[in-house]
Design goal:
The protein is an alpha/beta fold. The chain contains 9 helices and 12 strands.
Length: about 325
């Protein structure tokens, strides 16, 4: 039987999703559990184990060549641990070791969820065929990943490209990460909503105070709602431009729930980017919406594991050369 599937996990603060992904990026088996994010680490791991066991019980498991994990971070792929900000019970938690207890001798690759999303967009989405890209998830937090030289570049610990914690306001509000004025502190969904409420915006009769509701108000012409999105767009533009100046990316792909606001976000983002991306070699930088949707984490986790194993059918065409991804130890 051919080993032509990758087992993928996408672990976040609300869900633990699993899938067996084929060479076309299609999940052929799925499993899912809610994340008990406020429980202790062992309880969270039991839900991860339940997802894995649901997949190992299928006939298709015999076709699995490797396991890929995309997790909320920070992660440390060099030692196989995770410390997600939104899962307090996991601090330096040995996730890879726990997964190996269930999956046996299969190779396991761990990256942050932003890197996984980047791998998906580069394999089959908006960054396909690009040699330099920044892919971002703008949602409850702001994460990201890099494509350099035509290959996903997670860095030694699996966190490279984490644009959410670039400081774009030196005297800005404290960020939970310990720094100040981070992109995430300004551009994440909860902070867009917080800023709109602080500025005098009030929700409709349904009482919805999410960034999605702020986006609806912005589309309807509410100046406070529009201003909150413009401020978020400015922070994103500053972070994207700084990244482009540093590593010469050619495209920035923006996904996540906040990106669902559409032109409410992208129009001011493109305008702001013209003010920040001024050097000659970054002026042609494109900013586009992500294409991979809710399966990006799973498809990307499969892609990074497959790239590590040299399984070319799981990858978009790229320049010749050795991959930059590496297996967690």
């Amino acid at each position: 039987m051919p080993c032509d599937l990758i087992a993928a996990l996408d672990i976040g603060g609300t869900k633990i999703a699993g899938a067996l992904v084929d060479g076309n990026g299609t999940p052929v088996v799925r499993a899912r559990r809610a994340t008990p994010a406020r429980e202790d680490g062992a309880t969270v791991m039991r839900e991860v184990a339940a997802v894995l066991r649901e997949m190992t019980a299928t006939e298709d498991w015999a076709r699995v060549a490797a396991v890929g994990i995309g997790s909320a971070g920070p992660v440390d792929a060099s030692v196989g641990t995770v410390s997600p900000v939104n899962i307090p019970g996991w601090r330096d938690f040995p996730l890879v070791a726990g997964v190996r207890e269930i999956t046996g001798e299969l190779p396991v690759t761990l990256v942050g969820d932003g890197v996984a999303m980047t791998a998906a967009e580069h394999w089959q989405g908006a960054a396909r065929g690009r040699t330099g890209a920044l892919c971002m998830v703008v949602s409850t937090g702001v994460g990201g990943g890099l494509v350099l030289g035509g290959r996903v570049h997670p860095g030694p610990t699996g966190n490279a490209g984490h644009i959410g914690h670039i400081s774009v306001d030196l005297d800005g509000d404290p960020c939970p990460c310990g720094s100040r004025g981070c992109v995430e502190r300004i551009a994440s969904g909860p902070n867009i909503a917080r800023r709109a409420l602080d500025g005098g915006w009030r929700p409709g009769p349904d009482g919805d105070t999410t960034a999605e509701a702020v986006a609806v108000a912005a589309r309807a012409g509410d100046p406070v709602a529009q201003g909150s999105f413009a401020r978020a767009a400015q922070a994103l533009a500053a972070g994207i431009a700084a990244t482009a100046a540093l590593v010469e990316i050619e495209i920035a792909v923006v996904g996540g729930g906040v990106a669902g606001a559409g032109e409410v976000l992208f129009a001011p983002l493109r305008r702001a980017l013209r003010s920040y991306a001024t050097l000659s070699y970054v002026q042609r930088l494109e900013v586009v919406p992500a294409q991979m949707g809710t399966d990006a984490g799973l498809v990307g986790a499969a892609a990074v594991a497959a790239q590590e194993r040299g399984l070319d059918r799981f990858r978009a065409p790229r320049p010749e050369g050795r991959g930059l991804l590496r297996e967690s130890r």
